[in-house]
Design a protein that fits this description.
This protein is α+β, with helices and mostly antiparallel strands. The chain has 3 helices and 4 strands; from the N terminus they run H-E-E-E-H-E-H. The protein has a 4-stranded mixed sheet with strand order 1-2-3-4, sandwiched between helices. Strand 1 and strand 2 form a beta hairpin. The chain is globular. It starts with 9 loop residues before the first helix and ends with a helix. The mean pLDDT is 91. The structure holds zinc ion. The site of zinc ion has 6 residues, from loops.
Length: 124
């Protein structure tokens, strides 16, 4: 959920720093299109490329997702709804011609930045 996405999480900041160092400019936490609520963590509007750095807990990382024990049912539904929303967002953006690149917050920023630079160099 958008409200739950922490801004300026450390891995994301580091990825942005590495992109800047490579001379790449981009928008941060930016709306993609006027009628869409979703904001991308890193956005190139002209190229229609958007990056999400997903938090392991909120977005259900297969390696680190945990299910809180208190209010287990509520949390299970909540987290499943988050993942479902991510997939709907991906589909909606793809339908509008966006290239969606998702990374987990646990991924080393250097690897994310390298992958991104490669992706930006590669036509879809
Ligand atoms: Zn993770």
């Amino acid at each position: 959920m958008q409200r739950q996405r922490r801004r300026d999480t450390k891995p994301e900041v580091e990825v942005r720093r590495l992109l800047h160092a490579a001379g790449i400019r981009f928008r941060v936490n930016a709306r993609l299109e006027p009628d869409l609520r979703v904001r991308g963590d890193i956005v190139w509007r002209g190229r229609k490329v958007v990056v999400f750095v997903d938090g392991c807990f909120w977005h259900g990382c297969p390696r680190h997702a945990t299910q809180p024990k208190a209010n287990a049912d509520w949390w299970r539904d909540k987290l499943a709804a988050n993942v479902a929303r991510d997939r709907r967002t991906d589909a909606e953006l793809a339908a509008r011609g966006w290239r969606v690149l998702r990374y987990w917050e646990h991924e080393p920023p250097t690897e994310v930045a390298t992958d991104l630079l490669r992706a930006l160099d590669t036509p879809r």
